[in-house]
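Justification of computing resources. Each target in the renewal requires a structure prediction run like the one illustrated here; the chain below, 386 residues long, is used simply to show the kind of job we budget for.
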Amino acid sequence: MRITQVKAWLVEGIKYNWTLIKIYTDEGLTGIGEGSNWPGSPMVLEACKHAGETLIGEDPTRIDYLWTKMYRDFNWLGQAGPVMSAISAVDIALWDIAGKRAGMPIYELLGGAYRKQIKLYANYWFLGGTGTPQDYARQAEAVRKQGFAACKFDPFAHTNYWYGEHLASNLGLTEEQKQLALERLVAVQNGAGRDFPIAVETHAMLNAPTAVEMAQRIAAAGINCMWYEEPVGPEFPDEIADIRRKIPLPVCVGERLHSRFMARPVLEKHAADILMPDVVRCGGISEMRKIASMCEAYNVPIAPHNPNGPICTIASAHVMAAVPNFFLQEFMVMDVPWRETVLGRPLPIRNGFVELSDEPGLGFDLDEAELEKHPGVTRRRPGFYV
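Resulting structure tokens:
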């Protein structure tokens, strides 16, 4: 069996564009993948197209070989970014082909399922308001009723760093902004219930002293904090570890750790309580499985980052079905209405879980005609906040 063609599409999502691919073979088997990332999704699209061109004539069953070949060939461009997104997309599609060829779901090829119901926490549940504490509280109450195990949001959204002022403030916050963030968190906790965990997102947009201060104030406010996410960026593993020692909240990082090689120092320095790699950025199914194994060796749970397209949701779930140290998987509660039509049928989300089937591969295909109806955009939606 040989690869004959690789197609790639940029599709508009609610947060940012999805980058989706499809690999075709001379035996009629096809596989679908995703490499969504932002900003700069057009660069990811071109990386997917170029990576696809290098695969023509290759044997798609040599998954690890092709992963290593692409990683080494493109390593001159760096260890992260569009290159790893393209490798991720290809890898997911190759596993989809392997599953279809074997007549088995991917989680079976990965060693079998610990679970077929993948527990979810909710993100992007808060887009129906203006960002006031009252709006957050109302929506948090509604999201809990949908069966999700926890929720996540960035209480610092609408503050200076989302309006380009972070360069002047050096990622600091005024006291008014700090108080607003705390008011939002308290409102969400009261709206969802004191026993409902909240993951506090920072997007690595706080300087270290501010990150430490806000973690201490969040704890003092009695927030049931599931984790404190990305208190600083991935280029500072020593500083992440230092902040973890200083604060009373669990630390979660990983969405910008693009490969096991970038995850290694975070684990070695005991910088995180939970790791959250993203299957469409870290190197695909192959790499997420390896990162999960590394985490297991450090007794660290894994909670996939997933604010992406629908293939990311399914691919992440297949990996999480097959690893022992799964914690929770992220899910976009609100999204564009064509999220599921591009797959031809709805995602199997019920009562806060992904329910995996026994269908071969990922269990889905792409509707190419539907993809063409929703081309990606580069503008930001008015009033959008993270």
